Amino acid sequence: DAGITQSPRHKVTETGTPVTLRCHQTENHRYMYWYRQDPGHGLRLIHYSYGVKDTDKGEVSDGYSVSRSKTEDFLLTLESATSSQTSVYFCATVGQGGPCGTEAFFGQGTRLTVV
Amino acid sequence: DAKTTQPNSMESNEEEPVHLPCNHSTISGTDYIHWYRQLPSQGPEYVIHGLTSNVNNRMASLAIAEDRKSSTLILHRATLRDAAVYYCVVCNTGNQFYFGTGTSLTVIP
User: Given this model, what pLDDT does residue B1 score?
Assistant: First the structure.
């Protein structure tokens, strides 16, 4: 394991409230990713980071923002949660040397329910 | 961006080889092919990856077609612990991993 901790592991929130999910890693990995997983869609990339304060959008970034102020933490924020954002969220990290040429490590996931 | 297509489900008898196919016809020349598997209520776990040549590791083998438009993950002897959803993933030069919808593998004792 790459020492990835996601918090919280479960959360229920109301529509319209802001929500922040945290991904913490202890391996000093450069690359970090946020995915969401929904039935029939596999994992879809929300945002990713290739270094401190360097982030970019993935394929389903609308309604989400991210921040990475230090190497070990990558935060995902839902500014105003909607029911369509009910999902399981996974964080992933990749070490040095470029993400494609080495393995990615995934956290245990955060199950978010928006009611 | 390269997309992947996989069968929804497959079955295998225990201790027999399993060949899990994946199509990625829009892959670019520098995109890597990765495979991950996921057990219920867990995050995906790395299995294997490659670029052009076939690859072997302790878990599996990856056979990549010469034109790179498809690949096959090979589990040499399926065990009950190999029952999982297997994802074929393309990693591009933009540092992004794109997952397919996965193949649910059932291993029959």
Answer: 58
Of the partner residues A42, A59, A100, the one whose CB lies closest to the CB of residue B32: A100
Pick B1 or B13 by higher pLDDT.
B13
Q: What is the DSSP letter of A85?
A: G
Tokens 């009910």, residue located: A86
Structure tokens, A58: 């993935």
pLDDT < 70 positions in chain A: 1-2, 97
Question: For B87, which of A42, A48, A107 is closest by C-beta distance?
Answer: A42
Which of A42, A103, A106 has its CB closest to that of B43?
A: A106
Residues of chain B neighbouring A54 (CB-CB closer than 8 A): none
Hey, of B53, B97, B99, B101, which one would you mutate to test binding to chain A, going by the most A CBs within 10 A of its CB? Answer: B97
Residue B8 tokens, joined: 């929804």
Rounded Cα distance, A98 and B34, in Å: 14
Interchain contact, B34 vs A103, CB within 8 Å: yes
Pairing type for strands B103-108 and B9-13 reads parallel
- On whether the CB atoms of residues B87 and A42 are closer than 8 A, the answer is yes
Q: What is the pLDDT of residues B49-104, one digit of tens each?
A: 999 989 999 889 999 999 999 999 999 999 999 999 999 999 988 778 999 899 99
User: 3-state DSSP call for residue B94?
Assistant: coil
Find out whether A48 and A58 touch, Cβ atoms under 8 Å. yes
pLDDT at B10: 97
Residue type, A106: F
